[in-house]
Amino acid sequence: MNRLLHRFAAYLLLPLLVALTSLEVFFRYALSSPLQWTEEVVSLLLLMSFIAPWPWGAQQGAHVRVETLAEHFGPRLEAVSSRLSALCATVFFALLALGAGREAHGLLQRGDRSDVAGILQWPFAGFVAVLAAYAASWFAWRVLRGTAAPRPPDVP
Question: How far apart are CA 119 and CA 107, in angstroms?
Fold first, then answer.
């Protein structure tokens, strides 16, 4: 599933973002007739493209870490640091899932839509809630198993 979410963001959402932004620029500057709905759609797509690769990034060890400290840790301290990092990520993603889930429920009850395009808002909050819950469970599993985070590939 992680790879599918990564590909969804990389091969569908990002090209769609580029296409819609280009369309908006063309209409705004070439035709002097800006489209009203593209800004809202691009904002929602940007949110999804930011969130969809989270699980993949965590699995690959591509998340942000302070390498200047971690490279000086011995194996034991690195394992403790990795477990503490996973515990903090578990709490963060669990709280995010809870908050986004509550927000999605409220948006659904109110029937909230975007101002111009009229897009329902609750599916996007639900998307954040589901992915955050998935990420929280993945990190919790790492904490319970005591497995270290994968090392990111060296970048020249």
Answer: 12
